[in-house]
Design brief:
Elements lengths: L3 E2 L7 E4 L7 H7 L2 E2 L3 E3 L14 E8 L7 E5 L5 E5 L2 E2 L6 E10 L4 E9 L5 E10 L6 E10 L4 E10 L4 E4 L19 E3 L2 E9 L2 E8 L5 E10 L5 E7 L2 E10 L5 E11 L9 H11 L3 H19 L1 E4 L2 H15 L28 H13 L1 H13 L1 H10 L32 H4 L3 H16 L2 H22 L1 E2 L9 E2 L17 H24 L1 H11 L5 H11 L55 H8 L6 H12 L9 H11 L3 H12 L16 H15 L3 E3 L2 E4 L9 E8 L2 E8 L2 E7 L5 E5 L2 E5 L4 E5 L5
Length: 786
């Protein structure tokens, strides 16, 4: 069972309409509420057996009690216990008669209604609403309404903050085929502790609890106030180790309700611009907040502004429209434009998967969404790479070179955080040593941002510092093809491309070509700075000790790297020796149209085969389409598509876009479905661990860059819509050089409006030159060039 559509406003609501404990962890992920500063999983307030709750604060990492650093599972602000005549309301103690939840993507509000019955058949209705404020990223709010329906009852509501939280650590190795039910699977994991309580108490009616991360020394403070809409017969404050709460009791007649509203403030010592102690700031957040309705209204208004820039609307297919907006919602709650020291982990702020680490996913899969809809957020995400540049320099030194090398998995410092083994300790990862391309991917993102925004102040400052120091790394990491040679070809040995089925390979096509591109563009930026901003170049050179002759070395190395650049190269070998690997055909697909591993194969024994986790060469042609002829792209797409198992959620969206570029529209729709519904339909079976947030970014890219045919480069904006037949229109906005272009794409004609002051803008639509005047809607035919 997956999430269902709402019967009203179907493209804006995700619903759960019964209670199934085996699917509860899935809904905990998809119902995550957040605001980029924090994310809280959609667990029931009262919890259930097998629950995996979690609140995650961006940038709060700790390595204590763990082999590599974790994004800390932070205190739980939802914790609530409701008793009716002494009997606890929860799915294990009572019978669930009805259960409904609805996530409103438009406002970020999660609504819930559950009807419970006790052993005597007496029913109680529990309603809740929760949100993480998008207007005040330090603020969360919860509203609880309890109504006994059949008999008078004493209703007790206890709600507060629970700081007794742990991270999943290691799963013991069990015999093959061993499985555990939903009620026990998380209990089988070892746990790690990252927080120690440092204080608790009450400031008037505001409760607070503080803790410190054990290794990283970050102070975390939560404060809350809970107020009821009627006078309780009893009210008391509760405080014990790692826990504060308010308990209130009410005498209610049948049909009478009590509502308790809770405001929560959160602060840490790592918050940008932090001044006062975190506990004082958390309390101040609670005291300045108004009632739940006011908090929700302010947050909804902030969401309205976000959606005005970010909405990508499909008209004619409600299910696809929901999936696309669901992706956009989760992207928006994953990033914080106000904090350039944090980035988006592979599971965003929705789960513990991948320990909250940052991969290349941000630069390649997610940044394009923010670049064209929320450029300030895109700038903040790139700021993280400058913030962690000292760590990248350490990684390079640890691996025997100068310059800077970004780690495969990054956290707060920029040092390598990739574990060496799987959680059960049975299989070795080599990604930390060999998946080097992330460094070139960061350079690619920096230059895409500069091309789209025209922000030369960034490019010639932080951007150049990263580009130049990482270029130094590549020059030293490359080796001559012939040992001892001082000229001739350069190679990259013992690497791994995006296809993680094959390690210890030489001259991976994706890596080599991206390194060449990186070095070429770094040298080009240096030339531009020397001509246009010599003072900025001098400042960067002084910071990193750059000598005048180094850029010439980058340009020389770029020309010597063995890399596939011939536009008529035919099928490009993924790495040296790939064509000699055993061909193992893919013959089975599951109910979600995802390829199955051929019998006898798994993630860790495909080294000697032609099977791919995701295809490096197709990804390369996605990033650098102008480098390869259409015939070459088609030939490579067809060759590698047949060998790809799509065991990375990044893979389907890339296939969809490249498929559209080479004329394979039917497969593109299928791959769009795989990407768009990876979490809504749980088509990889692991959504319970957290969102596939890179796939959310990929889904937006399929819609806009794929079906919308939108491309942006130094020569301007191009549109070439090729919508599925079931889509009547595709509508979205893109930021370009400080202004916005609103596009309404259709099968027969498309309309464009340029927003913002300034001169006209020229765009190209299906090869036609179209002049946009600010404020005027222009409609043009959709078809071939005139």
């Amino acid at each position: 069972m997956s999430a269902t559509l709402s019967t009203t406003d179907a493209a804006w609501s995700v619903r759960e309409d019964d209670w199934d404990p085996q699917r509860a962890n899935y809904f905990e992920t998809v119902f995550t509420v957040g605001n980029g500063r924090l994310g809280t999983r959609g667990s029931l307030e009262e919890r259930h057996t097998g629950a995996l709750p979690g609140t995650f604060l961006a940038g709060v990492y700790d390595a204590h009690d763990a082999p590599v650093i974790d994004l800390v599972t932070s205190p739980d602000w939802l914790t609530t216990e409701v008793l009716v005549d002494g009997v606890r309301l929860d799915p294990d103690t009572m019978t669930v008669v009805e259960h409904h939840r609805r996530l409103d993507l438009r406002t970020g509000l999660l609504e819930r209604e559950t009807l419970y019955a006790d052993a005597a058949g007496h029913r109680t209705r529990l309603r809740t609403e929760r949100l993480a404020s998008m207007a005040d990223r330090d603020l969360c709010a919860l509203r609880i309404e309890v109504t006994p329906l059949d008999a008078p009852a004493v209703v007790t509501v206890e709600t507060g903050v629970d700081a007794h939280c742990r991270n999943l650590e290691r799963l013991p190795a069990y015999p093959a085929g061993t499985s555990f039910g939903h009620d026990r699977k998380w209990e089988k994991w070892a746990r790690s502790t990252h927080l120690r309580e440092t204080g608790r108490g009450f400031h008037g009616r505001v409760g607070h609890v503080t803790a410190r991360t054990i290794d990283s020394g970050i102070d975390v403070a939560y404060a809350f106030a809970a107020e009821a809409d009627r006078e309780p017969v009893m009210r008391r404050n509760l405080a014990r180790h790692e826990y504060v709460a308010t308990e209130s009791a009410f005498d209610l007649e049948p049909g009478e309700s009590v509502t308790v509203e809770k405001r929560v403030g959160i602060a840490t010592s790592r918050d940008p611009g932090a001044g006062d102690p975190p506990v004082d700031r958390a309390i101040a957040t609670v005291l300045r907040a108004e009632d739940f309705a006011a908090v929700a209204a302010a947050s909804a208004q902030a969401w309205e502004h976000l959606w005005a820039d970010s909405d990508c609307e499909i008209v004619g297919d409600d299910r696809a429209a929901l999936a696309l907006r669901f992706s956009v919602y989760h992207l928006l709650i994953a990033a914080n434009p106000d904090d350039p020291t944090v980035n988006i982990g592979a599971k965003s702020l929705s789960g513990e998967g991948y320990r909250g680490h940052v991969f290349w996913d941000t630069e390649i899969m997610m940044l394009p969404f923010f670049l064209f809809t929320q450029p300030r957020t895109a700038r903040a995400l790139l700021g993280y790479r400058h913030h962690t540049l000292p760590g990248a320099r350490e990684v390079a030194r640890d691996n025997g070179t100068g310059g800077a090398r970004y780690p495969w998995e990054s956290a707060d410092t920029g040092r390598e955080e990739c574990p060496q083994f799987t959680p059960d300790g049975q299989n070795r990862f080599y990604t930390r040593e060999e998946e080097l391309h992330v460094t070139a991917d960061v350079a690619y993102a920096i230059l895409r941002y500069a091309d789209v925004t025209g922000d030369d102040d960034y490019l010639f400052g932080e951007g150049a510092e990263i580009l130049f120091d990482t270029a130094r790394y590549w020059v030293q990491r490359c080796a001559p093809r012939i040992e001892g040679a001082v000229d001739g070809d350069l190679v990259l040995r013992t690497v791994m491309g995006p296809d993680e089925f094959h390690s210890h390979v030489d001259d991976n096509a994706f890596t080599n070509r991206m390194v060449r591109w990186h070095l070429e563009r770094a040298a080009d930026v240096h030339r531009r700075m020397a001509a246009e901003r010599p003072e900025a170049l001098a400042a960067v050179a002084a910071r990193i000790g750059l000598t005048a002759d180094e850029p010439a070395g980058w340009a020389d190395a770029a020309q010597r790297i063995v890399a596939p650049v011939d536009p008529d190269a035919g099928v490009i070998e993924q790495f040296d020796g790939y064509f000699d690997r055993k061909v193992v055909p893919i013959t089975e697909w599951d109910a979600n149209d995802m390829p199955r591993y051929p019998e006898g194969y798994n993630h860790f024994n495909c080294e000697d085969t032609s099977l791919l986790k995701q295809p490096d060469v197709v990804m390369l042609m996605f990033l650098l389409p102008d480098d390869y002829s259409l015939a070459t792209r088609l030939q490579n797409y067809e060759f590698y598509e047949a060998r790809t198992l799509h065991k990375s959620s990044l893979s389907p969206s890339i296939h969809a876009i490249v498929g559209l570029q080479v004329g394979d529209a039917s497969k593109a729709e299928r791959y769009f479905g795989r990407s768009a519904f990876v979490d809504l339909d749980d088509n990889q079976g692991n959504t319970e661990e957290g969102m596939h947030i890179a796939s959310a970014g990929g889904t937006w890219q399929v819609a806009v860059h794929g079906f919308g045919g939108f491309l942006a480069g130094r020569d301007g904006l191009r549109f070439a819509p090729a919508l599925p037949q079931s889509w009547e229109h595709l509508r979205f906005s893109v930021h370009w050089r400080g202004r916005t272009v609103r596009a309404d794409l259709g099968h027969a004609e498309s309309s464009f409006t340029l927003m913002g002051d300034g001169p006209d803008e020229v765009v190209h639509v299906c090869g036609r030159r179209v002049v946009l005047t600010p404020g005027e809607r222009v409609t043009v035919p959709t078809g071939g060039p005139a």
